[in-house]
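Example (one chain per record):
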Amino acid sequence: MKKCISILLFIIMMAGCSSQNSTDFSGQGKSIVLTQSEQEWIREHPFILCAPDPDFPPAEFFNASGEYKGLVADYLGLILKRMGLEPKIVKLEGWSEVLTHAREKKIDLVTAASKTSQRQIFLDFTEPFVELPAVIIARQQVDRELTLEKLKGMKVAVVREYAAHDYIVLNYPYLDLDIVPDIQTGLRKVSFGIVDAMVVNIASASYYIEKGTITNLKVAGESGFTYKLCFAPRKDWPVLTRILNKGLASLSSDEKYEIYSKWIRLERSPIFSKKILIFLIGFIGVIFLLIAMVIGWNRSLRAVVEEKTKELKKEVVKHEQAKQTITESENRYRGMFEHTKSGVIIYKAVKDGKDFIVLDSNKSAKRIDQLENKEIIGKSILNVFPGIQNFGLITIFQKVWKTGVPGHFPSAFYKDNRIQGWRDYFVYKLPSNEIVTVYSDETDRIVAEKALRESEEKLAGIINSTNDHMVMLDEELNILWANHTSKNAFGDDLENKKCYEAFAGLHQPCDGCVAEKCFREGHMQEREINLKKENGLRYDFWETTNAVSLNQKGLPKTIVTIFRDITQRKALAAEAMRAGHLASIGELAAGVAHEINNPINSVINLAQLILNENKKKGEQNDIALRMINEGSRIADIVSSLLSFAKDKKGSKMELNIKDVLAETFALTEAQIVKSGIILDVDLPSDLPMIFGHMQQIQQVFLNLINNARFALNHKSFTKESLKTIKIKGCVEKVMKHTYLRIVFEDNGPGIPDRLIDRVMDPFFTTKPGGQGTGLGLSISHGIISGHKGKMKIESLEGEFTRVIIDFPMEGRS
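Predicted structure:
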């Protein structure tokens, strides 16, 4: 049987590779002609990360020493050596992991793979160099030929993500598949009767039969599918595919034969066929008979005795061979029994199935349950496992022993005075009426699952208890998930709705949608937005959007959007601004009164002069003119004060920064002059306009000038030094953005380093009690931020304080 399989494999493989010999490079040992671009590619990529299937003998596998071996390994080594490429073999756990690494481009080459539509998405393929038919493997007891159609209603094992798996799912979706991680696992399941059959390539099946691992299996039929093995480079490396195809074409027939004969044992047929041998034996027998008749009866009798002796010797030899075969079979099963990762214990039923005696156990059982064979063989299961009766496994034993139907005892917690842990059992009945348990220790898995579940529950509790509104969106802006806060505010049926429908009541995305921008640009986005909750009231939110998972292009596939309610915060800020506004007006009252008082006195005095000098001509017009000027001064001061006190909810407009400063100077000029402060103003004539609220920006400038004046008045100056406030304007570029920069600088006492980070905090002030609210800089910072600008403070204690304000120029109109 083994000889037939080997010869069949050789014929199939030679046929599968015949197409390679029909190319332009079919000549034996022909040198490989590479283009200049291919040679350049090899120089740039001297190492190729190669991932084989770790369990696909004799095509490819890793031996006990971890070395990459097999027919494909020899092909690959020979071709890459000729190309000047060095393979870097990556050993992975299984075929599924090989394909996962290939999808993620963590490897450069899958060493042997059949071309399928699913794999062509991320892999390229050379011409096939080996063809292996997939056959149906079943137990020896199966007495009929099987096909895939006849497997309906049977349990069929197939290796996960093998080409045969894809073929069956596509063409025979009704089959009941048992997906296994590797070939050996599937063959064992067939051997133990867990599944009815397995679809596997004939080479691997014969390999395990040849190695003597499993002996109760046979080829029960053909599947109609053939593995056409190719080298499979990354999809984005087509040049490697061309290079490998040229390497395959360069192999001579002798080289191919040498590789095949190394891994597929080919035995020569005997010189004479059975019929010829029988004929010769008969012919010789006739001659011997004639000789015997001539020599006589005695010689004839001697020949008959010798013939019988030979037959007896043959029988003895056959008996010894059968004995050796049985011994080898026992050794194979013992090897499987001892080295499987699952614990295996064999029992004998006694007392009509009420008790079970231990007959044998493997090394894994010793490891899992801390058992020694010499201590448990011959003992009752009730003594070996005192807690088994309450555990419930005995009931499964009795059911399987009576019915012969395999049973499964799902994961449960076992405990006695010696051991404890989670166990999962499969129970089978052997033809010898013995009961076999195959079980595993699930403690680590269940503990890990419990920890993961608790972690998920804890995370869900944190997310659902936060006051922030959180939702997850896909690329179509569908709401995939929402926390309790969001559902309480906007309704329980948020899932599967569009975010703009659920939150804004729109039929298309909002203007300036930060979610779309996040999907498009791939980084976090923020903005302020006003939304209407389910109670009908509108609230202000600060919306932050960031990626959760990425697609193959590195852009977000899903995002999380967090809405933080800032309605109350904005109300408090507005209240603080109003308080600051009133405080500023109160501070100005003294200056305004002073400014009004002087012109009034002048008007009175000038009026008196008019009465006294009424008769003097020429002076009356001059006095009248002076009266008009003083009156105009009063009007300007009052106008500025009224303008500052107006409501600030009006719309923004284009502003000339010089006009804003002029209005501010009109309100502060008297105090500045009185304090002996020099204003050094440097505003170029070509400064661009800004877009903003006149009164708000004037409030900022007024606050900064008053702060500078207060600081200068509380510093001692020598006769040589002067109190100075410098105001400078210019255009600056910061991080590719253009700003109009206004700098206020005074040479006052400065701000200590320990306080510099707190000066813009609400209600923080360095002024003596009763002389400041601590709101000025906080309000000013809020106003500049509301204009999408920036405000920062620089200071050196004892030297200066500098306030820098940047107004954005983009989108100002």
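Caption: The two ends are 89 Å apart (CA to CA).
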